[in-house]
Automatic annotation (TrEMBL), chains A, B:
Recorded catalytic activity of this chain's protein: (S)-malate + NAD(+) = oxaloacetate + NADH + H(+); (S)-malate + NADP(+) = oxaloacetate + NADPH + H(+)
GO molecular function terms attached to this record: L-malate dehydrogenase (NAD+) activity; L-malate dehydrogenase (NADP+) activity
Ranges where the Lactate/malate dehydrogenase N-terminal domain occurs: 28-175
PROSITE patterns: MDH (PS00068)
Ligand binding (NAD(+)): N127, V151, G152, N153
Pfam families cross-referenced by the UniProt entry: Ldh_1_C (PF02866), Ldh_1_N (PF00056)
Entry function: The chloroplastic, NADP-dependent form is essential for the photosynthesis C4 cycle, which allows plants to circumvent the problem of photorespiration. In C4 plants, NADP-MDH activity acts to convert oxaloacetate to malate in chloroplasts of mesophyll cells for transport to the bundle sheath cells.
Protein name: Malate dehydrogenase
Family designation: Belongs to the LDH/MDH superfamily. MDH type 2 family.
Natural source organism: Leersia perrieri
Positions contributing to substrate binding: R114, R120, N153, R184
């Protein structure tokens, strides 16, 4: 019976001989879509200590489906065979009300892939239902301060659905992953300017994780100087740069025949590390967050990617002193309009009445089926 | 034309603005089978600094095939998008004489998988030819002190073929990967004893990476005490333990539908780290090495997994003071006999005359096609 597999503990080791270690309290990390390729990269990074630190023991709580439960057992075996000293527990299951229990982090990767010819609205509905259910489960059983990172697409609106279904968890705790977009944007600026990656800072992705996303070259810096002072090719910045960032996943799937699981996993690591480590002085990072009280004039009550800073306590604050010009603002408004339309599409899942779907065109990022 | 892709530099960044950093000299790491799943995990670990250290810049030189060159371009793109500050260069190609140039490490993962019904002898011949060619290429163009880790199966005999075709590189520099076997053995002992993984030490895998491999519970320790003092279940140790270790890959492929790419990559990381970091006092690690001058009485001139220690300089020495009993020795002799038979099978590839193949049964590890 399917229920029998639910949260079966694949591996749990007696900790009685470890009392003398001055390690931190165990952190519970739940991951959905745990049998998929993104997770297959991510779980080993979580277990190795590169995300939460080399003194942070971790329990992994893996959510799969009936179809994937055997694969999850295989993943748990491979994690065992990797002998990670920080990995204290791996549990697997198919019931989010069990798997999310006491979760302090929930990394929501699992989502239905878009089938051939499927409209974005249909995908919003199918995946929205998954995230509504997972929001309810988090609300019922997770840590009251659980941090949630939504990766499954369309991730902004999925995050909105999730937080609306989890009223007892602060809306501020929900994130939609736009870090891969940020990383790709930094990469393109570094390549264009001929500098190392780490010379590019203050990179914002504004808006939706879709083709309306806005990589912000007005505020980004290279070697501490405005991008426009370093890259004089304005035509490239205005016409090519954003397209290149957006098409990256599509080019990759053409060449590689797979979606970008490894670099997505790296960007999830980056997103978490940005919340558990203090942001370097003067810099910021991008994450899709709930827009309540935002200083930019973006509509309230959606999930929108914006520039943020963290003290390293898992929380963040919005960066307030960013410049705006017409070119940037017009694009931000377009992404905002799309998110408002997506929100109307899923009103039945957020408890806001009947859905009305008038999505403008197909704005799924290429390579994200 | 295929040749045009050979070692095309997918990405190389100007280093002139980095002269002030006190980082070490760039290390050149070549990886074959770079478009495969093991590499897909390994390359990101190499680039992140977790293998060679956070102060060690790295150049990755990726060897693929005509068929996989596009996929390799995709891998290079994902590595770019990950913004690893230590990753200074990624080059890709299909000619080992170009890709292996100046390589200081060569991680030879690529090999033909065994087709249905294929005999081990046929696999030895097909893959042996690949490793003969790669040995010649290393001999011609790699660093004179290149360290070579052979992962592609049958890895012990492939390593022997490789080193025989690279007479100008010290035979001591060639390794066959038995670290995944060691990790799996440690995991099983930890689970049986109910202790953490890192309480198991001094684990040797003797012999061939095949079903004749010998996980050594006579010398292994748990919490510093002999395994036999901690695990009183001798029947389990003698009859179940070894089988469980050997069948692990097979069980995994049954459950997960894939071979153990992630944990294999972790074990390659462990194998390299064991050579570039000093071995902890009193402990050792297993690696398949050339048997010349071994103190155990194992036949000379084969590649055999044995207990080794390192000063952290990339080199190793054999551990000499290990205990032996009849049970252990008999099993070691059986694995030795198999490796001698494999050697006779590939005499045409090692320059030792005509091959004569009398392999005893099928000893491929389950899950390794």
């Amino acid at each position: 019976m399917a229920c029998d597999c639910s949260a079966s503990s694949a591996y749990s080791i007696n900790t009685k001989d470890e009392k003398t270690k001055s390690w931190k309290k165990l952190v519970n990390v739940a991951v959905s879509g745990a049998a998929g390729m993104i997770s297959n990269h991510l779980l080993f990074k979580l277990a190795s200590g590169e995300v939460f630190g080399q003194d942070q023991p971790i329990a992994l709580k893996l959510l799969g489906s009936e179809r994937s439960i055997q694969a999850l057992e295989g993943v748990a075996m491979e994690l065992e065979d990797s002998l990670y000293p920080l990995l204290r527990e791996v549990s697997i299951g198919i019931d989010p009300y069990v798997v999310f229990e006491d979760a302090e982090w929930a990394l929501l990767i699992g989502a239905k892939p878009r089938g051939p010819g499927m409209e974005r609205s249909a995908l919003l509905d199918i995946n929205g239902q998954i995230f509504a259910e997972q929001g309810k489960a988090l609300n019922a059983v997770a840590s009251r301060n659980v941090k949630v990172i939504v990766v499954g697409n369309p991730c902004n609106t999925n995050a909105l659905i999730c937080l609306k279904n989890a009223p007892n968890i602060p809306a501020k705790n929900f994130h939609a992953l736009t870090r891969l977009d940020e990383n790709r944007a930094k990469c393109q600026l570094a390549l264009k300017a001929g500098v190392f990656y780490d010379k590019v800072s203050n990179m914002t992705i504004w808006g939706n994780h879709s083709t309306t996303q806005v990589p912000d070259f007005l505020n980004a810096k290279i070697n501490g100087r405005p991008v426009k002072e370093v890259i004089k090719d304005t035509k490239w910045l205005e016409e090519e740069f954003t397209k290149t960032v957006q098409k990256r996943g599509g080019v990759l799937i053409q060449k590689w025949g797979r979606s970008s699981a490894a670099s997505t996993a790296v960007s999830i690591v980056d997103a978490i590390r940005s919340l558990v480590n203090p942001t370097p002085e003067g810099d910021w990072f991008s994450t899709g967050v709930y827009t309540t009280g935002n200083p930019y004039g973006i509509s309230e009550d959606i999930v929108f990617s914006m520039p943020c800073r963290s003290k390293g306590d898992g929380d963040y604050e919005l960066v307030k002193d960013v410049a705006m010009d017409d070119f940037l603002w017009e694009r931000i408004k377009k992404s905002e309009a799309e998110l408002l339309a997506e929100k109307r599409c899923v009103a039945h899942l957020t408890g806001e009445g009947n859905a009305f779907c008038d999505l403008p065109g197909d704005t799924m990022l290429p390579g994200e089926m």
